[in-house]
Amino acid sequence: MMYPLPMSYSAEISRSNPTAFLFLIDQSGSMADHAGNLNVSRAQFVSDALNRVVMNLIARSSKAEGVRDYFEIGVIGYGGSIIHNPLKGALSGKVFNSISTFEKFPHTVEDRVIKIIDNEGKQVNDRIKFPVWFVPEARGNTPMRDAIRTAALEIASWCNDHPNSYPPTVLHVTDGESSDGDPEPIAEHLKRIVTEDGEVLFFNIHTSDESKKPIKFPVSEIDIPDHFGRTLFRMSSELPDSIASAAREKGYSIANGSKGFFYNVEPIEVVDFFDIGTRASSDSLILR
Fold first, then answer.
1. What is the DSSP string of 36-89?
2. What is the reported pTM?
């Protein structure tokens, strides 16, 4: 569907009318660079953040009888000449898969060591099982325009199949500028795709470890220092009320007209970006 409708973002989310999240991930060569002061690459950090948000969505969907399919998740990665679904195994056949399929079919489960605070207030190491669906990749240039075109085709098909659902949310992570032309016209096309509940939401985060001032949830492009940043700002959707509330709860300053856009932020901000973006489907909308 691609016609204008009143935007409500209030449709109840149920197994018969799920919502969807599409993660659009820059996998160009620069994503192999270190993630700020962390001892991992940007690609690895984004991978871990995405795997964590999948775990959180599984937890939000879990009931006594099992995982209910309130959500469908898709991933599109792009780098060099490749634009593809990077997931493996049972999740590789199509872009969107139900949350219960993710729960059943992780690519692998890793043993990881994390630091926790024990009962005596001391920091100690703890071992956990960490399911992995998305693995890091980094190659070549940044075909962002074609990647957004691919996302738009998948989103349009999903909306045609789910006309009554809370609209899908696209969460785009990049650390560089498009190498295949201006992505803005395609992004505008994507944002005009709708369900009966509203337009598709498109949020963008530009990660960097440079010294430029970070910008989070801006209302205008006046303080954005370069052409590419201003393009990403214009590509981004305004925050619906449920997402604005989630951002405020995390301590962000949100004004009327704030857009779902982070610019020149540290990779650690990806964690908040994913968590806030997936609150587009407020738990209060989910049928029990």
1. TTSSSBHHHHHHHHHHHHHHHHHHHHEETTEE---EEEEEEEEETTEEE----G
2. 0.92
